[in-house]
């Protein structure tokens, strides 16, 4: 099964539930995927504009969630900082997430990677998911959410970049219901489809979904399913948009401004 098909199965019905135990073999596989890096770096200046100002405020609130409540305010110090990272295929999410991990001590979690590891773990839950996919059934969104939450607990950290999630409204609803809280903000890498197409065709990673016909379908899925999620958060002034149609270092110069609170 190609990576795209596997990832898309994560956006299933919210009617079923799945509990992922931290003692299962799948969790041990998840732990191996969790990568956090300590270290701080100075951030670049935040771009101007009303949208950037609103996003900066969201970032400031996210940073405050990890501060000592005794210093004033009624922040929830028990809740981790969560940033949803969205963008079309080939927008550069993975590259920039690696930079944020390096410089701001975040943990990068990929919903698709966790689901694939879950299926390969040999655990009863992983085998169940693999069989559902084999039979063409929809994997409940709660499965993916529980995998993410379990990986977050296993990391022992409190700052997370959740890459490629939520893919749609159903994912978002399942997150809020299962986790009991929402993200702090959404980091959206905005890039033209022609640029993303060139990147995908040129990255030569051996992925079976990096062909022109499949890429077009992935763009349609992103426009129809993921963009409404971004628009939802935009109305809440929680979207930090980065123009990723630039060189990686220029994209990161924009990105770091949204994380200045964590430096």
Task: Please tell me the total number of domains.
Answer: 1
CATH third-level topology: Rossmann fold
Structural class determined from secondary elements:
alpha/beta
By CATH, the superfamily comes out as P-loop containing nucleotide triphosphate hydrolases
Overall shape: globular
Number of helices: 11
Describe this structure in words.
The protein has 263 residues and is of the alpha/beta class. The protein has one domain (3-262): 3-Layer(aba) Sandwich (Rossmann fold). 51% of the residues lie in helices and 11% in strands. It has helices at 3-8, 25-33, 50-64, 93-104, 111-120, 124-134, 141-155, 169-179, 193-202, 212-235, 248-257, and strands spanning 35-36, 81-87, 107-110, 159-163, 185-190, 239-243. Strands 1-3-4-2-5-6 form a 6-stranded mixed beta sheet, with helices on both faces. Helix 2 packs antiparallel against helix 5, helix 5 (111-120) packs across helix 7 (141-155) and helix 7 (141-155) crosses helix 8. The longest helix is centred in the last third of the chain and has 24 residues, at 212-235. The N and C termini lie far apart (40 Å). Residues 1-51 and 66-75 have low confidence and may be disordered.
